[in-house]
Amino acid sequence: MDAADGPGPIPPVLLVGCGRMGSALLAGWDGQGLSPSVILDPCPVGMPQTGPHLAATDAAGIPPGFRPAVVVLAIKPQMADAAMAAVAAVAANATVLSIMAGRTLSGLRAALPGAGGIVRAMPNTPAAIGRGISVAVAEPSVDEAGRDVCDRLLQAAGSVSWVEDEALLDPVTAVSGSGPAYVFLLAELLEAAGRAQGLPAPLARRLARETVSGAGALLAASAEDAAALRQAVTSPGGTTEAALSVLMAADAWPLALHEAVRAATGRSQALAR
User: Fold this and answer.
1) Rounded Cα distance, 211 and 229, in Å
2) For 63, what's the count of Cα atoms within 13 Å in the CB-facing half-sphere?
3) Domain ranges of the chain
4) SS (H, E, C) 86-127
5) What is the pLDDT at residue 109?
6) Strand 132-138 and strand 158-162: pairing?
7) What is the pLDDT of residue 120?
């Protein structure tokens, strides 16, 4: 294939779970030319009704001759045991990509002993608009082809970083996996604070949402780090400095955010199995 032709279609996938994250991934894959695949989800709501893919509500609906290149586990951890038992035969010799929180490589290997190689990744919800970030770690048995196809599947939803130490996925979960909720909370609280200062509710909402999203876009577009951007908008003796003197007090945001990420990391560690 000529390099100008691109990487070609994505090979067939068995997507187990088509909820919010699974649907976001599927949309990205289709945009890159996903080969006819199978989507397995017990709830038909949100599953594809047209197109080249087969939707099944249980493993009995998987065609007997279907051999996916990758089995993607996009289900809730509490559903994992039954789902992995149901697809173990189909997963034999395939690369497995799990985006389940708390399910370790060793635990996945025990449940899917015949898998060709297992990759564990933590994406986040901006994947729904192609602006997510995923961090992935692979078993040593994952070959270059398996790693490349998993990287391509994850890149369909945003950027990807790889690590060698699986333990890093716990703080990754706390920072980027849970991080969108922290940003949404900021917008929520900023809106409420604006209303408390007399802003009409619709205006407070618009100001909060567009300020948070615009600042995020500026951060993404800038080569400067976040501290430099903060300092650039903080004039000595001005309104921003007055606000930051409250937020940056030792017992305010610096402490609260460290404690929040520590709590989320600990919960992720506790859920590991």
Assistant:
1) 14
2) 14
3) 3-165, 177-271
4) HHHHHHECCEEEECCCCCCHHHHHHHCCCECEEEEEECCHHH
5) 97
6) parallel
7) 97
Amino acid code (one letter) for 234: T
User: Which portions of the chain are predicted below pLDDT 70?
Assistant: 1-6, 44-51
Q: What is the pLDDT of residue 271?
A: 85
Count of C-beta atoms within a 10 Å radius of residue 31? 11
Q: What is the pLDDT of residue 77?
A: 86
The total number of residues written for the chain in this structure: 273
Q: Which fold has domain 177-271?
A: ProC C-terminal domain-like fold (1.10.3730)
**Opening angle at CA 41, ends 127 and 271, nearest 5:** 65
Q: Quick one: residue 224, left, alpha or beta (phi over 0 = left, psi -120 to 50 = alpha)?
A: beta
Q: φ, ψ for residue 21 (rounded to 5)?
A: -75, -40
**Cα separation, 213 vs 209, whole angstroms:** 6
Residues 176/81/17/11 CA torsion (nearest 10 deg): 90
In degrees rounded to 5, what are phi and psi of residue 2?
Answer: -70, 140
Q: Which one, of 217, 218, 70, 91, lies nearest residue 154 by Cα?
A: 70
| 3-165 under CATH 3.40.50.300, yes or no | no
Task: State pLDDT tens for residues 171-228.
Answer: 999 999 999 999 999 999 999 999 999 999 999 999 999 999 999 999 999 999 999 9
Q: How is residue 89 written in tokens? A: 């035969």
- Rounded Cα distance between 244 and 131, Å, is 28
